[in-house]
From TrEMBL:
Keyword Repressor: no
Xref: InterPro entries: 4Fe4S_Fe-S-bd (IPR017896), 4Fe4S_Fe_S_CS (IPR017900), Fe-S_Ferredoxin (IPR050572)
Alphabetic keyword roster: 4Fe-4S, Iron, Iron-sulfur, Metal-binding
One Pfam short name: Fer4_7
PROSITE patterns membership: 4FE4S_FER_1, 4FE4S_FER_2
Protein name: 4Fe-4S binding protein
Residue stretches making up the 4Fe-4S ferredoxin-type domain: 4-33, 40-70
Source organism of this protein record: Cloacibacillus evryensis
Keyword field contains Chaperone: no
An example molecular function term from Gene Ontology annotations: metal ion binding
Length: 77
């Protein structure tokens, strides 16, 4: 099974939670922190469960999510 990694630009995240609902593996959650703009950004609460499907990034209206995937054997895809 592929292994994924999610990076979220918390500085620009508005905490709309669309990505939280889009994630089929329930990797993302709204954090308890508050960013400089006063929003609670999303975090990868279950980062080890990410498979790199990219649905969160496609759903994000502000394009603050980057998804990376590693195939078996360690090579980045």
């Amino acid at each position: 099974m592929p292994k994924g990694r999610v990076e979220i630009s918390e500085k620009y995240c508005k905490g709309c939670s669309l990505c939280v609902y889009a994630c089929p593996r329930k990797v993302l959650a709204i954090s308890g922190r508050i960013n400089a703009k006063g929003y609670r950004p999303v975090e990868a609460a279950k980062a080890d469960d990410c498979v790199g499907c990219g649905l969160c990034a496609m759903t994000c209206p502000d394009a603050v999510i980057s998804v990376f995937r590693e195939e078996e054997g360690g090579g980045a895809a």
